[in-house]
From TrEMBL:
PROSITE patterns: ABC_TM1. Belongs to the binding-protein-dependent transport system permease family. CysTW subfamily. This is ABC transporter permease. The chain crosses the membrane at residues 20-39, 73-95, 102-127, 155-177, 206-227, 254-275.
Length: 289
């Protein structure tokens, strides 16, 4: 027997009360594990060492922290662009393939999810070290005559973050491409459009929701990334997440670290609101147009 009000009158769809009841454990978990710690940390930034905005003024007064924020934005943008350039061909291959080939490509896209970020980052550290495979290949092909510094550079951080976040770009684009009817491409071909024109005027515009969804997922995740920049980056070119960790672990300056978290949270929230106003999130995730 179903409870009154749990289902719609037709008995096939959940009512608003039913949906809220099912979502209650999720909201409780979010409130306990995310909202409460975040609000407690943000309150610390305006109450210690004295009530006020002194911690935020400190961020504005020191140009070093502004440079860290700009560097973080630049790396997030660069990672998003590189991931997009690599993900679109892979997503197209997934859509156009079938049988064992489709399983093979999908497995390689999902393979990073089967290992931790720490393991993947450590693998890049092995590859990029002075005696690593990359340096050996550069010397074999004659590009360099001796090992060069690849590890602990901004390039190493960008490459490793692109590899780690690539699936988050591939999957939304794949969802958008899969929802494009094949009749559209055939109709454009009948009208005389060549492959490049069909790609530019049919495929790309219709896949744009998935592209935007992948870009915003990768960009927002890259803004707060910690493990990869901490292990592969240089202390002179740290990102904001590494700076927050430094304030917490080395200087034990929790109020200032909380202010840095507040700035990052405000920035991420602003970007999310802008995208939610300009683009529908269901379309961005590759839903029906």
């Amino acid at each position: 027997m179903t409870r009154p009000g749990f289902f719609q009158p037709n008995g096939r769809q959940l009512s608003s009360a039913g949906i809220l009841l099912l979502m209650a454990p999720f909201f409780m978990l979010i409130g306990f594990a995310f909202l409460y710690p975040l609000l407690s940390l943000l309150s610390l930034s305006v109450t210690e060492p004295e009530p006020g905005l002194s911690n935020y003024v400190r961020i504005l007064d020191n140009p070093l922290y502004f440079k860290v924020l700009l560097r973080t934005l630049w790396i997030a943008v660069l990672v998003s662009v590189l991931a997009l350039l690599m993900a679109f061909p892979v997503a197209m291959a997934m859509v156009s393939s079938s049988g064992p080939m489709a399983v093979f490509i999908t497995a390689f896209v999902l393979l990073p999810f089967w290992s931790s970020v720490l393991v993947r980052t450590a693998a890049w550290a092995v590859l990029l070290q002075r005696n690593g495979i990359v340096n050996d290949l550069l010397q074999v092909v004659g590009i360099t005559s001796e090992p060069i510094r690849l590890l602990y550079t901004q390039g190493a951080v960008v490459v490793a973050m692109t590899h780690v976040l690539l699936p988050f770009m591939v999957l939304p684009i794949y969802g958008a491409l899969r929802n494009i009817p094949s009749d559209y491409d055939r109709a454009a071909a009948i009208c005389g459009a060549g492959p490049l024109r069909r790609f530019a005027e049919v495929t790309v515009p219709l896949a744009l929701p998935g592209v935007l969804g992948g870009v915003i997922l990768v960009f927002l995740t890259a803004l707060g990334y910690f493990i990869t920049p901490a292990l592969l980056g240089s202390p002179k070119e740290m990102m904001i997440a590494t700076l927050i960790s430094q304030q917490l672990r080395e200087f034990l300056d929790w109020p200032f670290a909380a202010a840095l978290v507040g700035v990052l949270t405000l920035f991420v929230t602003a970007i999310t609101l802008v995208f939610s106003k300009v683009f529908r999130f269901d379309r961005m995730l590759g839903g029906q147009l």
